[in-house]
Amino acid sequence: MKKILLTMFVLIYSSSFAQQTFTSTNNGYWHNSSTWGGGGVPGSGDTAIIDGETVIIQNDAGSGADVTIGRLNFTSGSLTLRNDLTLSNGSGNSATSSGTTLTVESGTLTVSDGNFTNAGTISVGAGMKFVFTSGTGDTFTNSGTVDITSDSNSFGAIIFDGTYSGSVNNMIYSRYVEGNDSGNGAWDLIGPPLNGMGISTFISSNGDLANNPSNDDVALGPYNNINGWSTYETSDVDFVNFSVGTGYQMATDNGSNLEFKGTLSTATVNISIVSNETDPWGETGNTRFNLVANPYASYINANSNAGTNNVISTNAAVLEPGIHQAIWAWDGAANSGNGSYSTITNATGAKYLAPGQAFMIGAKGDTGDTGTFSYTTNMQNTSGSGDDFYAGDAMDDNRAELFIQLDQSNNSKFTEFYFIEEGSDGIDPTYDGALIDFADPSFLIYSRILDNEQDNGAKISVNALAYSEMWNKIIPLGINAQAGQEMTIGISHRTTPADLNIYLEDAFEGTMTDIKAGDYTLIPSSDINGMGRFFIHITADTMSNGEVSTNTLNAYKESNSSYITIEGLATQSNNINVSLYNILGRKVLDTSLNNNINTQTISTLGMASGIYVIELESGNDRLTKKLIIQ
To answer: HSE (CB half, 13 Å, CA atoms) of 601?
Structure first.
């Protein structure tokens, strides 16, 4: 009995000792006992009270590292985080009082358990985080101000899992937006990271928003896949709120921050998307694509390599099957000259979408078909901190990456190849991604689906191929470039094995260039347009110019076109004989094409719908391929 009583006394004494209250008495670093009157430093389970002093959590000069305590309360004063602070005790509330300041200058503020009440000011710096993960039953009550900021390279975030209580004006997100200065046409694609702000209020309170001095338009407007881009007149938006989850084009005068005010999105956000597309392979038109945006004031997982709960996998069923089960990120600010859309799929490395970042998606179906595109709170991720489309860490060993870049006249674009277990020569849904380019189709680089039976002429930006077949692969490249200006083709990124050789074949010039050793440089005598001239050879063997032997001929029929496209004609030394057979083996077309134009078409008007076989023959080159005419 004495032993039991002694044990109970020890437990009670230990519990009381472990949970103490410390009140600040001097300005100083958290880890200095003199800041708390010399009676020690608050630790795990303790309550810390800031009572009129300026306290700093910082890891330098022996002043300590990250901090975990039970509760934090302010009567007055300020606390600056330069390391992480975690509040973990659910047995009581943490609170800031009016006039107090809690600044997350570096690191993360985490409320892992318990309620939190803010009547002061909480400032979250660019790239820093406020994480409220208390969950169901715990509330963040905000009657003060939470101010989250960003810059051109990093974005503050508030990651929320619980109940939020606060008015529209209590939460501010200061979001960096690209500048349209000097007439360079730099636009950004942004969505509101907070709920409830009126567009007219946003325009009137953000003087850095660019405008057109010749009319009433401002550099802000929606995207419609029938009519394209538009901008608002200030008189049009008096009673219109931003639609959270929807993207808008925006630009500032010189590249600066714009303030959004509103409440946090704390539940699933659904938006309606629509397809008005008649050609499922169309990539340069605007009729399938919808501009949507991250609705949360936090980073979210873009693809499966970022997290199981992610934008692409969650919404694959409402995206056009095949090469449009992807998302497209505008990277105009990253490129000199005209920008472009980069493609993100489940093949690409881990990608996180910044708070309020907008992007394009390809809706499933034909004209007028609608779907529901969803964002869920479990897509939120603490990993992100970098630029708009933040890249994560490298992936596993059974993976190799190869990016081929095209440069001309201060413009740069690249196409991506991923050798992964999920890849193949055919179409790999959610892994292969189409190229879209609304900006400058005269300057492009892309590839195609390697399986001739599945190649329907679509331009591919992200091509997932089998890792096991990487040692013997020939990949056709599509290039659009201007005559008379030097262009280079080279490797911008590579994680392929060191002993694997990578060559660029120019079938027109009859050259084979080791682009691991250096870029291929050319001044074209005429415009280059399309496929049939350039090929990437990935091989364990050594190759030379004398070994150029790729069959450059190709033919395809786009689903809603009235013609067959034939490529690679200019690389042939002879005229090209073309034969077309119906399903019964009867020849229905027999013609010859000369080799003075690289890409030519043959009309299918008047032909019955069905399966056909086309045969191309030029010297020793021969291609036989199945086509479907509708």
So the answer is: 10
Instruction: Kindly tell me the sign of the dihedral angle through the C-alpha atoms of 463, 467, 468, 469.
Output: positive
Strands 487-494 and 399-408: antiparallel
pLDDT digits (tens, 9 = 90+) for 339-396: 678 899 999 999 999 999 999 999 998 888 999 999 999 999 877 666 666 566 555 6
Please give, one letter per residue, the 3-state secondary structure of 394-443: CCCCCEEEEEEEEEECCEEEEEEEEEECCCCCCCCCCCCEECCCCCCCCC
Phi, psi (degrees; rounded to nearest 5) at 7: -60, -45
With contact defined as beta carbons under 8 Å apart, do 352 and 301 qualify? Answer: yes
Would you state the pLDDT for residue 279?
Answer: 64
Residue 3 Cα distances to 6, 16, 126, angstroms: 5, 20, 56
* Separation between Cα atoms, residue 216 and residue 238, nearest integer Å: 14
- Nearest residue to 350 (alpha-carbon basis) of 305, 401, 396, 399: 305
**CB-based burial of residue 372 (10 Å sphere; 0-12 exposed, 13-18 middle, 19+ buried)?**
exposed
625 falls in which pLDDT band (50, 70, 90)?
confident
The residue with greater pLDDT, 120 or 508, is 120
Contact call for residues 629 and 610 (beta carbons, < 8 A):
yes
| DSSP-derived secondary structure for 95-106 | EE-TT-EEEESS
Do 593 and 563 touch, CB atoms closer than 8 A?
Answer: no
Angstrom distance (rounded) from CA 373 to CA 274 = 10
Q: What are the residues facing 466 on neighbouring strands?
A: 420
* 130, 136, 139, 140: CA torsion to nearest 10: 20
Per the prediction, the chain carries an average pLDDT of 86
3 state DSSP class of 315: helix
**Alpha carbon 458 to its chain's center:** 21
| Mean pLDDT value of segment 105-113 | 91
- pLDDT score, position 166: 87
Q: What share of the chain is helix, strand, coil (3-state, %, to 5)?
A: 10, 45, 45
User: What pLDDT was estimated at residue 10?
Assistant: 41
| Position 513, amino acid | T
Distance CA(99)–CA(151), nearest Å, equals 26
SS3 113: coil
Dig out the tokens for 567 from the structure.
């490529």
A 10 A CB-CB count for 7 gives 10
* Band of residue 273 on the pLDDT scale cut at 50, 70, 90: very high
